[in-house]
Specification:
Length: 243
């Protein structure tokens, strides 16, 4: 079965951030055997040449939340030509949760990188990702120094892969294992063309999101521990008073 046939005949499903639910959720096409919503068929049951069709994806938390994707099919090639909501809108909303762990300037740049990528600008989006990546490395260096009580000797003179190794205790294990990601960023700015940068953009962005995810989890864990300590202190105070 071709890609086009799978899209037209089979139910399509993927995970995506829902703007209304404000969380990642499965989205799925909803079809009946006698009715395939969102695409046109010729009388001979063949897809019209150069046909345009739409897939309507329903949030599995609330079917009223619908994302629509528009495609054009030419022989064996299927190309997405539009969607609502836009990639930028979805990405921007999903990023909101990282505001507590990313400085305002760099949060804006992460948003801007996604906007540029969604408009087909590869090299420009890489510039912003590289700035954010470097900033996060500095932030984690400072975090480690705060924990250990001493800075890393000669840190600024290290190559980026060496910096990542030096910070492996406070960086995601996946990033430490795949520290070549910075090399992709640097090469993207100096050597790669627009198409290659666009191709690699999701991978490099994922490395940055991995760092932010761990930072956010650490922050939430600390908040939970502080709230528990406060609650236990209050209970202890009440029990002491009752005596």
């Amino acid at each position: 079965m071709s890609v086009l046939d799978r899209m037209l005949y089979k139910n399509v499903q993927f995970d995506c951030y829902c703007l209304q639910c404000k969380k990642t959720t499965p989205f799925k096409t909803e079809r009946r055997a006698d009715h395939y919503e969102g695409w046109k068929r010729a009388s001979n049951n063949d897809v019209l040449e150069d046909d345009i069709f739409t897939l309507h994806m329903h949030c599995q938390r609330d079917a009223a939340h619908v994302y629509s994707y528009v495609f054009i099919s030419t022989e064996d090639v299927v190309v997405k030509i539009g969607q609502f909501p836009s990639l930028e809108d979805i990405a921007a909303s999903d990023l909101q949760r990282f505001r507590p762990v990313l400085e305002k300037e760099y949060f804006s740049e992460l948003h801007r990188a996604g906007g540029l990528a969604s408009h087909g600008i590869g090299i420009g989006s890489f510039v912003y990702l590289r700035r954010i990546f470097e900033r996060l490395i500095v932030t984690h260096r400072d975090k480690l120094a705060e924990v250990t009580g001493k800075p890393i000797d000669g840190f600024d003179g290290l190559r980026m892969d060496e910096k990542i190794d030096a910070l492996k205790s406070v960086l995601p294990a996946t990033l430490v294992k795949n520290k070549s990601v910075y090399g992709i960023l640097s090469k993207g700015i100096h050597e790669l063309d627009e198409e290659t940068c666009k191709k690699y953009f999701p991978i490099v962005r994922a490395a940055i999101i991995a760092m932010l995810e761990e930072d956010l989890q650490a922050l939430e864990k600390k908040r939970a521990a502080d709230e528990l300590t406060k609650a236990l202190g209050a209970i202890s105070g009440e029990l002491s008073g009752s005596k």
